[in-house]
Amino acid sequence: MSKNKMIFWALWAVLLMIIVYWVSLLNSSSNKKKVSGPKEFNVWVVGDESAGFSDIISWFKQRYPSYENTNIKFTKFSSYEDYEKTLLTVMADNNSPDVFVVNNNWWDLLETKIQAIPNEVIDSLDFSKRFNKAFDDMILKEKDWDLVKTYLKWIPLGYETLWVFYNWKLVRNTPATWAELDEEIKNSEQSSDYITIWLWLGEKYIFKAPDILSVFLLQNWVNNYKDLKSNNAILAMKAYKSYATDPNNDITKFQDEMDSLGLTTVDMFVRWKIWMIIGYPSLVKEIELAIKRTSGTVNINKKFLRTSPLPQISSNKEDNSATNLVNYNYFALSKQTQNLAMGYDFMNYLSRQEAQEKYLKSFPAYLSAIRALEDQRKKESVSKDYEYVTYESFMDPSVELKSFTKWLKIEFDNYFNKNFSSKEEDNVVLEKWIKYIDCNKSHLIDGAGFEEQCN
């Protein structure tokens, strides 16, 4: 073999060794990447069953195989009360779950505990194009010298709005304004058999009663518990309570029966005792349960259950005053997480249409957070048994969806349920309400003021 050939083959041998070496390095790097995910990743949810997230977990791992060996653990809390106190406690101990859900009506409480999501992870402009405009306030802008950086605070997977459910056999045209409803009640005949609508009392009787009052407050331009002592808040209170004082709408006529049998307004609605009730799409489930409780006695026919928009203060659409409450839980990444890279990947996946579809399949009572799925689901029924209760019924682009800031959701709702039937003047009740929230904030968040009893 000539000297030149020997040199040639020697160079090829060296080159081959280099190639083999780099391939082995790449394989090693790839293998390390596959096992780079943490052993456990914790997500806390409230209300929604943890089993409903199994599809999201499995598809997330398919999209991000480096986390295939990570145990993604969803912990479900049955009540907001347990969830709120447990979450605040573990955060005070710097032991937060990696991701947790927060209700939009008390997000201020945990804003400083949430890790903002940079544009490199989820593009905020793309987010605003794809998601319902109700979520535009999730985009956080922060000035950095002469540049304005945008971030996302959190990711929603669905939302709810309040609507009127009515018995079409009894009511053919529902009122567009509260004034029209007042006129309807005024002109109706007094009857021992039924009433038009039941408001005023708490959740013992009315499903989501504090949220219904929140709508009255929002429609009177009160959007924060701190403003409950304003004149507009007093007007909202009087309007809400007025539906208990009209002699043509005497809510006390059924109260003894309801107390003795443990019934709610939903039970009386399916028994044809109340013409209309207010609720979220999920109220359909309560209606179905109430029908079962009738044990086959008179109940609302499935074809007669209809929905209509929530009454407004004004019927003039040109003044852009139409308002409804939006309610949802969003997923937030904790600032205390030790798994930031996985947290960013997980939040990115939740923002995708694929994850949104899987969530709505598991929890069909929610409205779609992204625009593409809104159009797909518009004509579908919330429940297969009620063909006239469609998702479109709860979606009106002319109505502005707003959050009411409760700060502490449980304490806000509890005060309502315990004190709303108080004989005190409205302004006194409202001022005490503010003090009650502030007192609990001091105890639960600041860890101070324990010498004061919150009542």
Automatic annotation (TrEMBL):
One GO CC term on file: ATP-binding cassette (ABC) transporter complex, substrate-binding subunit-containing
Keyword Nucleus: no
SUPFAM superfamilies: Periplasmic binding protein-like II (SSF53850)
Transmembrane segments: 6-26
Single GO BP term: maltose transport
Signal peptide: none
Gene Ontology molecular function, alphabetical: maltose binding
Annotated keywords: Membrane, Signal, Transmembrane, Transmembrane helix, Transport
Gene3D superfamilies the UniProt entry points to: Periplasmic binding protein-like II
Domain of life: Bacteria
Family note: Belongs to the bacterial solute-binding protein 1 family.
Name assigned to this protein: Extracellular solute-binding protein family 1
